[in-house]
Amino acid sequence: QVQLVESGGGLVQAGGSLRLSCAASGSIFSINAMGWYRQAPGKQRELVARITSGGSTNYADSVKGRFTIFRDNAKNTVYLQMNSLKPEDTAVYYCNAKVVTTTVLVGMNYWGKGTLVTVSS
Using a CB cutoff of 8 Å and minimum separation of 24, what contacts does 62-65 make? Predict the structure, then answer.
């Protein structure tokens, strides 16, 4: 099994910064893409940023230039640096990873439980 544990959420004023972390653990053989999604109240979950094992990234238009995703492959950890936060960034942020485990040698999607980010105006 694989567990993804997020940390770093909280309350911040508009214009502030937060860094989210997500550490993967368990029977990991390799991790392909890792990403961050978010879900605001009454809205569907949406992709925020994604990074491949080779380091290629893509971002939602709404966060380009403000958020940066990066990963530490040695630690099986992905980060999301969020700057110039806006009230509309308020949401529960979920970590996602496509993981190949030592028992099932096919990449499967795993999700964290989420961390709440609240941006006050």
Answer: 62/88, 63/89
